[in-house]
Amino acid sequence: FAPSGKPFDDACGVASNQPRFLFSRIVGGEEVVPHSWPWQTSLQILGENICGGTVITSTWVLTAAHCFKQR
Questions:
Q1: pLDDT at 50 (0 to 100)
Q2: I need a labelling partner for 52 at 20 to 30 A (CA). Which of 23, 32, 45, 67 fits?
Q3: Integer Cα distance of 61 and 54 in angstroms
Q4: CATH number of the domain within which 71 lies
Q5: Where are the beta strands (DSSP E) in 1-71?
Q6: Backbone angles phi, psi at 67, to 5 degrees
Q7: Model confidence pLDDT, tens digit, residues 12-38
């Protein structure tokens, strides 16, 4: 959902307003347009980012097991 509480209009798996970079990497990363990758999530505890995830349905987020190990 968008900050307004309304669902995003974006199609699943289709980035909006996002420039394409052939050699982009996560390490060093690139700043992106807010809300241009609406299926990406930030998993947080007390406001601190602990891991990332991907929305795969309206009720499920996929993430790596190590995100919750020892939590």
A1: 84
A2: 23
A3: 5
A4: 2.40.10.10
A5: 40-45, 48-55, 61-62
A6: -65, -25
A7: 666 655 444 444 345 667 788 888 888
Total domain count for the chain?
Answer: 1
Q: Is the dihedral of CA 25, 27, 32, 36 positive or negative?
A: positive
Is residue 66 included in any domain, yes or no?
Answer: yes
Positive or negative torsion for Cα 56, 19, 26, 36: negative
DSSP states along 26-39: STT-----TTSSTT
Instruction: Check if the beta carbon of residue 43 is closer than 8 Å to that of residue 71.
Output: no
Cβ atoms of 39 and 12 within 8 Å: the answer is yes
